[in-house]
Amino acid sequence: MSQGKFSEQVLAFAHAPSLDELPEVVDVKRSVPVNPPEQTQMKFVGLSYEAAYAEAESFVAVADQFAAKHGPGSFADLSHIVDFGSGWGRITRTLLLRVAPTKLHAVDVDSEMTALVNTTLPGVNALTVAPQPPTVLGHASIDAGLAFSVFSHLSGPAHEAWAEEFGRIVAPGGAVAITVLDTSFFAKVAGAQAAVRAGNADAFASALSTTFADLDAAQSGYAAGEIQYAGSGGGEIRTGDYYGWAVAPPAYIERVWGAAGFRIVEWVPAETLFPQALVFLVRGDQATPMSARSLTQRARPAGSIQTTARRVAGKVRREIGPRLGGLRRRLRDVLDERAKKR
Length: 342
Known about the structure:
alpha/beta; Rossmann fold; 7-stranded mixed β-sheet; two-stranded antiparallel ribbon
């Protein structure tokens, strides 16, 4: 190419409009960011607006307190936090009240959602990842990770792969807060199946009723300490081979995450604070890659973890409940009001 001659693409880039000023890094305390469309909010979290944010605020508050108590410290004092399965960014938005945007990594498999985060929350490190790890995040580079309603949808192989990846990227002493479906989910499936038999099931109940064709077998597998997975897919890149409904017993979580270098320090059963069980894990000083350890290693019996879960639930209600009570009441009021409008 001779001097002074440029390709059409170079000319197109050069003649594109210029910004009048640079975009500002998001500061939610000074100016709240715009929301995505309500249908997008509902698609990813089943809630929107006040109800969606009230749940996110509660989750972040509990995880922050657990991090200060068991892990690396309060979120405000940490350098790198991952919102795993960030979706449209409700957890990320709530974290921004405590953490600078440059310290947050919003990670998701959906490039449309990471583009949305980049657009609405400039300055946050939005990262698109494949359905299976690894990520580009560095070894021991993360202080804390949060994953609300993510592992409750991952198949066993996907769950185990991502637990191992968290073991790689979370620094010793770091923490991860996840939610999972526990045994209470089977009652919801049974209720959906009963509604179908009675002929009064709505669309969601009809879909849920097919989750486990043999519900007794699923419950037996859960009692034996194995994850119970039913692939359903979640649209677009979330295909049924790894995304659906996943019911994970305490023994499974301890075994898989223990192999990745974590120990369970808090287990709050489903319907105590959130519809799903909240599990808070801390990474030990030494972590052996999952591939080098047996997943069949002896774990503490599920019964003893359930006893611990009941003790922890009571403790959480006493210590955190008063602060979250208003949020939970507000959430119920919002849902009741929306139901009345339908």
